[in-house]
Design goal:
The chain is mainly α. The protein has eight helices and five strands. Helix 1 packs across helix 3.
Length: about 220
């Protein structure tokens, strides 16, 4: 699959008429984290399995400085008697996204716990999902939902300044994946061109056969 092309498929917000798939893989790049989590949480509660990749490229509205202050305030919330009891402050982008979704789900009930088990979150695009069709959610895309000129920042910048150590590792792996994907895409494009040429070449020969098949409804 070409790394530069993302398939734009509308994931419906009309949850009463949802169509279920085996698994939905969402490319998190360019989505506003709050809007995406609200939609994903509802799909999880309705029984849909959802996987979100490239969580490090999720966007947060507001300037970086403002969001950094908010995260620092969040870090100060702890148990005074024994901080090891929690709350636990995740630094990785995927875990930040996971915790945001957890806050929108009744995770202490059996229904909520089952919903969270249907969720998978990753930084980058790991091996099983680099060859799977990935979708976006237009209702949560920053370019569609945030007013032009408004400030925003990425989750990976907040995470890296708060103690996440793997931004460089994820970026290197993403470069390798994109190079590999580009080779595959060029090969696929060449094969499609050859197939189209072959179809045009034999069109006259197979026309009588196609007409007979059409008569029988094929």
């Amino acid at each position: 699959m070409n790394s530069g092309v993302r398939i734009f498929i509308f994931i419906s917000r009309n949850f009463s008429h949802m169509t279920y798939e085996k698994e939905i893989v969402i490319d998190g790049k360019g989505h506003l984290i709050g809007r995406l989590t609200s939609i994903v949480a509802k799909h999880l509660l309705n029984g849909q399995k959802v996987t979100v990749v490239r969580c490090e490229d999720l966007n947060v509205s507001g300037s970086f400085y403002r969001n950094k202050l908010k995260y620092l305030a969040y870090l100060r919330k702890r148990c005074i008697i024994n901080p090891a009891r929690g709350p636990f402050h995740f630094r990785a982008p995927s875990r930040i996204f996971y915790r945001t979704i957890r806050g929108m789900i009744p995770h202490k009930t059996a229904r909520g716990a089952a919903a969270l088990e249907r969720l998978k979150v990753f930084e980058g695009i790991p091996t099983p999902y680099d060859k799977v069709k990935r979708v976006v959610v237009p209702a949560a895309l920053r370019v569609l939902r945030l007013k032009p000129g408004r400030k925003y920042c990425t989750v990976k910048r907040i995470s890296s300044e708060m103690g996440w150590k793997y931004q460089g590792v994820v970026e290197r792996l993403e470069e390798k994946r994109k190079a590999k994907s580009q080779v595959y895409y060029q090969r696929k494009k060449a094969l499609n061109k050859l197939r189209a040429q072959a179809t045009t070449k034999v069109a006259k020969e197979v026309k009588p056969v196609n007409e007979k098949l059409a008569a029988f409804g094929f």
